[in-house]
Amino acid sequence: MVPDDEGGGLMRADLLTDAVDGLDEALAAVDGFDEALVGGLLRPQPGQAGALAGLADAVAGSPLASRVAEAAEKAAAGAAGEDHFVALAAARTALLGSVHDALVVRVEEAVGRPRAEESTAAPADGAEHATNLSAAARSWLCDLARAGWRGIDHELVGGAAPVVSAMLPDPALRRPATLLDGFAAELAASCPGATLERIPVRRWADLWSRALLLTLPGAAAVPAVAEVSGRLLPLGVDVQEHATAVQAQVHAVFEPADGGTPRLVRASVSAPKPDTVVGAGLWQLLRPRMSLLAAVSEGRAVELDAMPLTAGGDLLWDDARARTGEPAEVFTTARVALPAAAAFPTSPLDRHPARIAVPVLLEGYAVDTAEGAEGAEGAEEGGGTVAFRVAGRRLAVDTDRAPAAGPLTPQDIASSGACVGLLRWDAGEFLLQPLAVERTVRKRAVAVHAGAWAGGTADKAGVRAEKAATDAVKVLRERAGRLLRK
Length: 486
Known about the structure:
Layout: H1 14-17, H2 23-39, H3 46-58, H4 65-76, H5 82-111, H6 131-147, H7 154-158, H8 160-167, H9 174-188, H10 201-214, E1 225-241, E2 245-256, E3 263-272, H11 282-286, H12 292-298, E4 300-310, E5 314-315, E6 322-327, H13 330-336, E7 358-363, E8 366-369, H14 375-382, E9 386-390, E10 393-397, H15 410-414, E11 416-426, E12 429-441, E13 444-449, H16 460-485
Parallel strand pairs: 3-5, 10-12
Antiparallel strand pairs: 1-2, 1-4, 2-3, 4-6, 7-11, 8-9, 9-10, 11-12, 12-13
Helix pairs in contact: 2-3, 2-5, 3-4, 3-5, 4-5, 5-10, 6-8, 6-10, 8-9, 9-10
């Protein structure tokens, strides 16, 4: 543990900056395969063959070894079939899963929190659904791999449309269908691939491999669910926004009514949105779907009664099973309840470094900015690039993730003395995404929360943003009404 007078509270920051054995080699094998997908595997070049062999070598000591070795050989000869592409996608996913696991172990050691425990929930629903549609989706994804990202065109990408249309009505297939739909739309917006100046190599390979594995029998099964009762103590809200959709994910500590081990859980709500609704206006789309947002905004606990909870730690929110409880201040929760809270195990397909988001509390740190200045003045002058000095180690702070839908700013973060955030991993290093900070204003500790406007606000900036969003929604509804009447 790091002494408080050295900064960092309970975090051992050295474990977050020290090298992880084998991590660079695993990522290099993944990167090589991803680059091979850029040019396509219909007529592979020698460099692509070497990358495929590198992927096979990286899993040589695993149960996948023989299948991946055969798949790499066939793909290098331009003769890969569906089973071979599935094996390559599985090898890539397994390597990133091993990176995820190694990084999570480091985080658990750094924060001194209990290890994730295996779930005792009932098995997931493994029933097969519309195997012909899954086979059609696999066929399209294999064609993508043969063409490569440089070879995509509207005809090839358009082949996903009938498959997605047939899959979407089936709730059991909605997960892979949604992924395929979004992936195809992203590719269509980039056609033709031959003219692209920049290709999101890692992202498209992630989407391709995940989509391919989700078409396998049982991969998209409904996760195991149990009903839980107890007290939910919110830690903060992570807002994820896209031009046509928005999601708010609440991270919290759940204390079981039977006195069991406290657990780290998440509760999410999402909604489609027009691209004109931004900032604080996003909450208008989300509030009607989740009472938890009001509790977060008011700083209160929530009493749960038989709320569905997946084996991965996600609450399937039902307002009828929730009741607003007593006041629960976030930093009190972080100091008292968070250290003893254990995480749920991560499901195999979700084991990816990009999905790491571990709630942590930092206190007593120093603040560095891009220009080397300290505190809020440096953040204001430097445009918002901030890092915390924790026990002499630098921890980058991702201020860009602070949503415009809340009052938390880079200046607030840079003038803070305590922070509740999500520890993430990106581009080879750990980053901190602030959810709430505590600042000293006129000798008083004042908390600023990213989700403070979730349930409504009297803040002038928030009120103005909500009014603008309300006006935009009214205009859109009027226009839609006119179109429907015609």
